[in-house]
Amino acid sequence: MLSNHLHNGLETARLVWSRLPNSEDGDFDAVGISGKSDGGRTESLDYEVIENFAYREEQANRGRLFVMYQVAVKWFFALLIGIGTGLAAVFINISVENFAGWKFSLTFAIIQKSYLAGFVVYILFNLLLVLSSVYIVTQFAPAAAGSGIPEIKGYLNGVDIHGILFFRTLIGKIFGSIGSVGGGLALGKEGPLVHTGACIASLLGQGGTTKYHLSSRWLQVFRTDRDRRDLVTCGCAAGVAAAFRAPVGGVLFALEEVTSWWRSQLMWRVFFTSAIVAVVVRTAMGWCKSGNCGHFGSGGFIIWDISGGQEDYSFQELLPMAVIGIIGGLLGALFNQLTLYLTSWRRNYLHKKGNRVKIIEACAISILTSTISFGLPLLRTCTPCPEVDPASGIECPRSPGMYGNYVKFYCSKDQEYNDLATIFFNTQDDAIRNLFSAKTLHEFSAQSLLTFLVMFYTLAVVTFGSAVPAGQFVPGIMIGSTYGRLVGMFVVNFYQKLNIEEGTYALLGAASFLGGSMRMTVSLCVIMVEITNNLKLLPLIMLVLLISKAVGDAFNEGLYEEQARLRGIPLLESKPKYEMRKMTAKEACGNRKVIDHTRGGGTLVIGLMLRRHSFSEFVKPVSSRGLSIEDIHLSSDDLEMYIDLAPFLNPSPYVVPEDMSLTKVYNLFRQLGLRHIFVVPHASRIIGLITRKDLLIEELSISGFNRKTQRRDKRTTRSAAAEDPLLDGLLHDNNSSSRSS
Amino acid sequence: MLSNHLHNGLETARLVWSRLPNSEDGDFDAVGISGKSDGGRTESLDYEVIENFAYREEQANRGRLFVMYQVAVKWFFALLIGIGTGLAAVFINISVENFAGWKFSLTFAIIQKSYLAGFVVYILFNLLLVLSSVYIVTQFAPAAAGSGIPEIKGYLNGVDIHGILFFRTLIGKIFGSIGSVGGGLALGKEGPLVHTGACIASLLGQGGTTKYHLSSRWLQVFRTDRDRRDLVTCGCAAGVAAAFRAPVGGVLFALEEVTSWWRSQLMWRVFFTSAIVAVVVRTAMGWCKSGNCGHFGSGGFIIWDISGGQEDYSFQELLPMAVIGIIGGLLGALFNQLTLYLTSWRRNYLHKKGNRVKIIEACAISILTSTISFGLPLLRTCTPCPEVDPASGIECPRSPGMYGNYVKFYCSKDQEYNDLATIFFNTQDDAIRNLFSAKTLHEFSAQSLLTFLVMFYTLAVVTFGSAVPAGQFVPGIMIGSTYGRLVGMFVVNFYQKLNIEEGTYALLGAASFLGGSMRMTVSLCVIMVEITNNLKLLPLIMLVLLISKAVGDAFNEGLYEEQARLRGIPLLESKPKYEMRKMTAKEACGNRKVIDHTRGGGTLVIGLMLRRHSFSEFVKPVSSRGLSIEDIHLSSDDLEMYIDLAPFLNPSPYVVPEDMSLTKVYNLFRQLGLRHIFVVPHASRIIGLITRKDLLIEELSISGFNRKTQRRDKRTTRSAAAEDPLLDGLLHDNNSSSRSS
């Protein structure tokens, strides 16, 4: 019934105002506000509007039972999101590790005979993988490029970017990131996994993808945008939980970084999803341990376990740690600024020239990366192996193709290793493991670390923004742990103490760079602890993060905020601008005319409805293309028709008085996740006042015990509520206040 | 100037309405709403009201520089709160451990000769400590009784309980909890530490305590209630961080459990406080390790380190773990219900009879607890020591007064130990350590565990609500780990696997009971991980928590919510009641008349101001007694005077239209932490509409680079904002819409 209305009416909603039969003064105008699409971006429906519709409809049609069904479906979907994202993460991990494993063992086998042949094979292998990735992305899923986190943040803030949650984006993201990460580029798979989780969640919420006829009416219980956003929040958490095997970190990431609000109901469901992911990933890894997954399977559930590292620290060490924090803040802010330059240049010049340029660019970066990571270690002279305690399990030099430190690469003597190759000519995971490793003092020379830092930083900046799925977490950890280990080396030399581990400083460096670039706090802290399994370093990680974030904030915004701003996504920062304090709501709403047609000199605001471009009962098809507005053809008769838009009208949108401080309006937007608010004149009369007590309705179905207790305990419990009984309010209308002249 | 007004005017504010010179129609009434005190509870000032005042005043007087000073002071206070709470926690810990250490070594020394003499000494020692505690609380600081968390939750929700943040409450809490915990009662020191942190924070925010002339005008920069609440949130986090040495858990506890909103600015500061606490506690513990703190000092930073426990688990184990979750939910819900009964009985009958009854009650509980914990192990026959690997460091039987398992108590033979005494005749910390311990299979018999479970559960229920500072965390962990270990024993016997550890099940049991009673999720999870240092069990802890919370929620509310309800504190739950969906704002506001005096038939709402009972520029003296309303004597001339209340008026309170769904109103209250909201008629005209883009004001001071980028990148970045320029809105007024008739 509704969809009939909509098929006929959505276009006309632009032209024809609804006549509402129950309006007092005869002929009023509904308010239509244009959600005009600009730059490929369409505005999403307002939360509250749809929420309100859905509630009304539910109440009318189905009532409490349907709500219970809906809750059950929500939890079932949270389960499915957990399983789906967990499996996607396992698939990506297995694929990447296997490609990388084949690549390195093949190259190692060939360089035993000829370094040149090995070099060529290495470059071609990488090029092929990167080419597959960039081809998938450019030809098939353009929205899969980049990390996707700024776009998801935008979506959860209420701004849709075209195609960001399509099924093809999901596919492009999964296979694209296998290619780009397996191809050895200076990027990670963590950001893309967050996007993958969000896509899975969104597709589930939609009941499948309409394009491939996979959708099911059975599961389309989510009428409200808010439910969809909640699902996507779950998906984000699942992505982080799967990427870092950090379930609590995932929950906090989703709530701190991605959404701007915090509801304990939602947290509860997000928590469940993360737990499911953890169980799925753990089970899969247990299965892989028996050798079912090729090169994958040697690692534990903790990605970079440094539980054997430094346990204690002296007060003097706080100074170098603070230095790490400052370096992290500076390098992180610089990274954000450089990538902002480069991305804006790419968007305005390079990527306008079409897909061929994007492909050539990615291939060029791949060749550059391969050349540097293979070539630079060749220039480095090898170091004699240190005396290694055989009980520690560390081998020097290690045999090729194995995980571990002390790789032998282009060394003339037997008992030598190439320290630069140990981190450069390696998968990023293993390089980080080596940098974090304890009991390997003086493994790296300062010269090698510095070379690596400069080259990798440059590569990470250049790679950022190319047309492949790309995360910034792992590159950030690489960069940070390199300078962290550098500082650690100086500390070891300077303080001459035995219990200082360079690996611990590498970990702090990683935390500081991520803090300086992404500006996260609690979630990053928890993620760092979960991926390294060393709780004892927690206070230090917290302090380093505090310093690096403070330093970074002095220069610019966080990486995701900068990128979102560049893409024109209107994210609201957590802190309102200082100038807002002096402004009123009236000043902010500008000179737009809201009510276009006034008739008979009198208008009354009936409510808020948004001009939409889509059908299907106002649920926006974010994941599938749906019907375009251009596809609907209306005859001139159609355009003459009136439709009653009352069912789609939000009769009680949020309002603020005209002279309210803009700071307060800002907080209202952020805390409630609003997209629109009406500015109204100072209220001419007051109907009443609601206090907290009015909202403490005792359910009639409350347990018998409670009622008894309360009756006995009347003085303390019920006295407050008894003063202003709710039922009285329901029975009597308050007409004592008069209307303004 | 303002305080002058207030001294004269506050009482009269009840009687005299302000004449506002700038009102349009001549003679209007300001709206005064009574925050009537009932049951010893006074309502606090509304957030937004005071916030608004403070902003205006700042802008007028001092501007940007003052705001910077304020921010600096906020961070400085966060530092002080961290140091203060950390030191308080260290002091309490050292005192408790030393009292307990003396007690047990003395008793052990005496029972070598006579068990009866030992028994008497043990009872007297405990009685003395409990007596000191209950005496301090009843005579000196009545608000220090109980855990304090429900009251702090209430305060942060906007409801003040008399005396909850006084200086004497702080003192009473610290010394009272030393007595009650040291005296061996079935309660913990964690809840009181949260309250301690909150008190420290509140006193700092007030600039000291006025009563003891310790206040300083220099630090009284916090005009706004919101700043005070933020400080108290920091204090709560610091309390948890100090109690469990769990900094991240503290942050999450403060944000999930205590406050109902989530602002990233606040989180950042809370995070800093927690980090400071961690550093302070760690430093103090390092200092104690060299033997400066008597019996305290043998433990590490992690309270119950079980990093050596079970690492892997099989699928079959998920079933017993789910059983643990269900038991936790059931026992937790039962605990909440029983304590609710008992507390309500105490409040209505027992404690009405005065302080003497409270003292006698606490002493009786102390004697009962001592008798049971000493007497029951006497009835238990000893078990022969198992063969212990000497390398594991476990001793059987351990020498008296030492920490560890296998205590020898009333055993006839040399190589025997008493398993019931190992957990009962011990400090709670050590008992938990023994229950969590790995590599001690079959240490406890099922009979002993069951006896302990029943007795301790009963004692915990009985002790709850007596007039001593009491936390429920540690008793909860005791109860949970006991049945967890019981289930673990059956699993070990049933599955006959070698890698199953009973201690791991004990940990899961503890998590399940806390989840079933307190209903926390993420914060509890993180706290459990931080106190046991075993990240690998995280997915299991999450699943157990999910089950136990779900089971518990089926029966009743969480412990703190139940207790808050009993005390008449109107906390808003996270989820609005189902009935609210069908209700409108108008229905909820009841039949109170808001505007009492109408003159000339016309009224106009000027704003919101609250009737207050305190002076000092509307900052409520929560921590000191301040001036009572009865102390102000006004002559009849005074009562004839008019004062201008305009400076204290919030001219733009939040408003909702009369037909808004109550669900939406509820969310507004919770998310913004409101206490009052006006219900107004449907807006007669609309001045404008604010969208997210209107709130994205570019600062003029933005970096040169950004502006350049944006100019170049106009199409993508600025186009959106350019459509509705804010400056236009500032220059032109929108008068196109007409007023309603």
Automatic annotation (TrEMBL), chains A, B:
The keyword rRNA-binding does not apply. It is found in: Membrane. SUPFAM superfamilies: CBS-domain pair (SSF54631), Clc chloride channel (SSF81340). One of its GO terms (molecular function) is voltage-gated chloride channel activity. The chain crosses the membrane at residues 72-94, 114-137, 231-254, 266-285, 318-339, 449-467, 473-495, 507-531. One of its GO terms (cellular component) is chloride channel complex. Keywords: CBS domain, Chloride, Chloride channel, Ion channel, Ion transport, Membrane, Repeat, Transmembrane, Transmembrane helix, Transport, Voltage-gated channel. The keyword Cytoplasm does not apply. Gene3D superfamilies: 3.90.1280.20, Clc chloride channel (1.10.3080.10). Residues 708-717 have a biased composition (Basic residues). Residues 649-709 form the CBS domain. Belongs to the chloride channel (TC 2.A.49) family. This is Chloride channel protein.
